[in-house]
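Running co-folding for SN-glycerol-3-phosphate.
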Amino acid sequence: MFNQEIDYVDAPPLAFAFDIDGVLLRGPHVIPAARRALAILEGDNPMRKKIPYILLTNGGGSSEEARCQKLTAQLGFNIHPLQFIQSHTILKTVAQDYADRPVLVLGGRNGEVRKVAEEYGFKNAYTTLDVLAWNPAVWPFHTLTPSEQQSVKSADFSRTPIAAIFVFHDPRNWALDIQIICDAIQSGGIIGATPTVQHVRPSGPRRPELFFCNGDMLWKSDFQRPRFGQGAFRVAFQAVYESLTGSKYPCVQYGKPTEATYMFAKQVLRDRFRDLYGRVSVKEPHVYMVGDNPESDVIGANAAGWSSLLVRTGVYDPRQGPPAHVPTHEVEDVLEAVTWAIEREM
Ligand code: G3P
Ligand code: MG
């Protein structure tokens, strides 16, 4: 996994990538096994070494720094932004392509995602609430709440050509967001343009480009059954768009299990090793991904050449039958995952 020229000595022979929802947290609650598992990796293990780990989540909606502060308080160990990847972190690598071009950023609450987008380098980011504030007739079934009103940025969307749409995090108002995505596509990016033909299809290169950051149909919160994730929103949008136009709209998908996100995670883990152990020689570490969702954690880790450890504390429920993708090993929880992997590497 690591670049041969960069060697490490004294580093332990393994590392971990942890999913968050359903592995470390359930909604706002810390899963009991999580703190003990992290204590082992922080040094309380037979190797008497810090075992490098990163957090790799399809969650999002706030800055990496803000989320890491919250995770540090919840888990009781310092989670550094350099060991943390959330669904939209990878968008840092594309922001410069859209630096000054108007883009729509979707998901999260009241403009929080706009702030994240601007920190990434998107200087001209708008939300669907901005569009509704510009013209309430865009979606007459929602009136901006006072806090939403405070979050909007003024713009004239009859003269703002939207170049791309980024679904950073899970949309809160699917109807409003699907309506505005379809408006932006069918108007060729200028939402307020008067349609020239019914169901206008933008001629020339597809615009706006459409990006999703998390393909999860389901995720485990603190409700008994898994909840719909951003992948369900994408399915809903594509169903509406296809009924309008006869075809699905091409889009770019990031997040687990995409190769782009796991390649990005490999670089973050490589950097984490360098931060902890510098450039000294040891054999290539073995990476264990601990996840609760076979569709994002198991299939993604297996394809990345990592070992996948599937826990029973999240989306995966053995009572529903075997997992859709076979993990390296199935465990009760994240503590069993960590102890099993360490014993295997001793
Ligand atoms: O929105 C978060 C959800 O899709 C899953 O998060 O941490 O299980 O990848 P996670
Ligand atoms: Mg999960």
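Result summary
Residues 259-277 form the longest helix (19 residues).
The radius of gyration is 22 Å.
Job closed.
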